[in-house]
Amino acid sequence: MNTSCSFAQAWPRRRSVAVAVGGVTVGGDAPIVVQSMTNTDTADADATVAQVAALARAGSELVRITVDRPEAATAVPRIRERLDRIGVTVPLIGDFHYIGHKLLADHPACAEALAKYRINPGNVGFKAKRDTQFSQIIEIALKYDKPVRIGVNWGSLDQELLTRLMDENAASETPVSAAAVMREAIIQSGLLSAERAETLGMGRDKIILSAKVSQVQDLIAVYADLAGRCDYALHLGLTEAGMGSKGIVASAASMGILLQQGIGDTIRVSLTPEPGGDRTREVQVAQELLQVMGFRAFVPVVAACPGCGRTTSTVFQELAQDIQEHIRSSMPAWRERYPGVESLSVAVMGCIVNGPGESKHADIGISLPGTGETPAAPVFIDGEKVTTLRGPSIADDFKTMVLDYIEQRYGQGRPAGRRVPADVA
């Protein structure tokens, strides 16, 4: 299992078939992959290139773009070329609905430029055309050696399949709830589509499944059942998760349980951006979910106490925020300059109660003075007290020490992970 967690998991990671998506491996022994999606008009190449680049810099390892009409399909190869030119190599996934078969056939450069195609069985075609148009997309994927994600969504579920299962349930001697039938329809839609792709010649190492719903308990139930019925790589996501804290909590609650059960090979946190909000927020939340659960490390962790009546000063809050923002904004460059820096832990504590102990547990930590305490701030590096900072420049002095520590521990000529105390008085 590919994880950095130091605790024993309740369940081992589910073994799935590995799928290569561009230069990224999904499933098998590969780390859980973070994915995101643009909300630009793909036909607007300038806006799409800018957003894909921003998502990639934030840490998205796969980026999905909408391909909904000829103008968008025409723009895809230009977008890929421009991204490559500026050094953004993140694989692009084409999101197809209704006329994907026609767009891929009419725009071979688009079919070639994409690293994966996403197909929704509920709207790939209707009635007699469904199987034909699905087959056409699979045949094009085979021609260009591209994997596919068969992505079922309960908002666009195959109504013929759902109606049939509802009728069978009504006639059963032991009928189940409508919700259970809905979940079964979602699972069958994905599995039957994958089975059809295999009969057309697509290998299991070219298929990823997803079964997205918007309610936490339904998502957990669907994926737990789906995971037990196949070994395809699985993409996790709570569809229409919502805005702000609601979307974050719902996504973390549902996917956190599934990930702890070993289910999930790639994830997306589908947040609704607030007006004028940053699309990269969904990438940050996905990374934080994987990191706090111990599955991967993306950025140094900044631990900070919540504050109480003993910490009336706002210095520790401002310092923690300043360091955290500086770390995240610096990570694109730091990944290249300081290999292994994502494993760094920093503690910024607000008083003497838990401050010294928490700081000792971090790679580098500071315990700022609380209400009524001596205006002194002990600093700990690798578990040892190295100095005490005093005066109005405590915050700036500590930030300098953090940067010095990073340079010494992770800089050129230093093996990743070696602990080297900062040179402090």
TrEMBL record:
Binding-site residues for [4Fe-4S] cluster, renumbered to this chain: 305, 308, 351, 358
One of the GO biological process terms: terpenoid biosynthetic process
InterPro entries hit by this protein: Dihydropteroate_synth-like_sf (IPR011005), IspG_bac (IPR016425), IspG_bac-typ (IPR004588), IspG_C (IPR058579), IspG_TIM (IPR058578), NO2/SO3_Rdtase_4Fe4S_sf (IPR045854)
Keyword Metal-binding belongs to the record: yes
Keywords from the named record: 4Fe-4S, Iron, Iron-sulfur, Isoprene biosynthesis, Metal-binding, Oxidoreductase
EC number: 1.17.7.3
Cofactor: binding comment: Binds 1 [4Fe-4S] cluster.
Cofactor: [4Fe-4S] cluster
All copies of domain IspG C-terminal, residue ranges: 302-402
GO molecular function, one term: 4-hydroxy-3-methylbut-2-en-1-yl diphosphate synthase activity (ferredoxin)
Stretches assigned to the IspG TIM-barrel domain: 18-287
Swiss-Prot/TrEMBL catalytic activity: (2E)-4-hydroxy-3-methylbut-2-enyl diphosphate + oxidized [flavodoxin] + H2O + 2 H(+) = 2-C-methyl-D-erythritol 2,4-cyclic diphosphate + reduced [flavodoxin]
Superkingdom field: Bacteria
Pfam families linked to this entry: GcpE, GcpE_C
Free-text function comment from the UniProt entry: Converts 2C-methyl-D-erythritol 2,4-cyclodiphosphate (ME-2,4cPP) into 1-hydroxy-2-methyl-2-(E)-butenyl 4-diphosphate.
UniProt family annotation: Belongs to the IspG family.
NCBIfam families the record matches: ispG_gcpE, PRK00366.1
Protein name, UniProt field: 4-hydroxy-3-methylbut-2-en-1-yl diphosphate synthase (flavodoxin)
Species this chain originates from: Polymorphum gilvum (strain LMG 25793 / CGMCC 1.9160 / SL003B-26A1)
